[in-house]
Design goal:
CATH superfamily: Umud Fragment, subunit A
Number of domains: 1
Number of helices: 4
CATH architecture: Ribbon
Radius of gyration: 17 Å
Shape: globular
Structural class: alpha+beta
């Protein structure tokens, strides 16, 4: 009974409050490395709108819903293991940084990103690499422009365009693994 109660509580927390996510690619280097685990607040954007600079997890814009033949108990166990970071989730979600907000014009030229004509100061980027040029995009209502910090190795809004705010799962707020590198984001 105690194990079942713990599983139900863990599943409820994962579904409603926070969830651990595995970093599968190098698109957020140097902030996040391949194999890191972060905790994502699922309630952050119920309290406020996304902000520029937030690191967000969102549904893949290219997502194809696979056929899931797993039984309910298998789904619950898989969800619990993912929620505590013990199982690697699928790549159905991406993690990127919010660069542009609804109504803003975002563009890249001369190795820099500009929002509404003003250069965006990005202290989180590694030294050296610059952002490749991209055409101006004006974001509509409910749209965000997201980019990886590793600009030379990131599939982001420059590839798939703006994302809908409604696809955002939550805001990454703490790196929990590996332990010596744990930090608030």
């Amino acid at each position: 009974m105690l194990i079942a109660t713990a599983m139900i509580i863990a599943f409820a927390i994962k579904s409603l409050v926070a969830q651990a996510f595995f970093i599968p690619s190098g698109s957020m280097i140097p902030q996040l490395q391949v194999g890191d685990r972060v905790v994502v607040s699922k309630i952050a954007y119920r309290l406020h709108d996304p902000r520029r600079g937030d690191i967000v997890v969102f549904d893949s814009p290219n997502q194809v819903v696979p056929k899931d033949d797993a039984s309910l108990p298998e789904k619950v166990v898989k969800g619990i293991l993912e929620s505590v970071g013990l199982s690697t989730p699928s790549t159905e979600e991406y993690i990127k940084r919010v660069i542009g907000l609804p109504g803003e014009k975002v563009e890249g030229h001369d190795g820099r990103v500009y929002v509404d004509g003003r250069e965006l100061i990005e202290p989180y980027l590694p030294q050296g690499p610059t952002t490749r040029d991209f055409s101006p995009v004006t974001l509509g209502e409910g749209q965000l422009w997201v980019m990886g910090d590793n600009r030379e190795n990131s599939s982001d809004s420059r590839v798939f365009g703006p994302i809908a705010e409604s696809t955002v799962v939550g805001r990454a707020f703490v790196k929990v693994w590996p332990l010596p590198d744990g930090a608030f984001l």
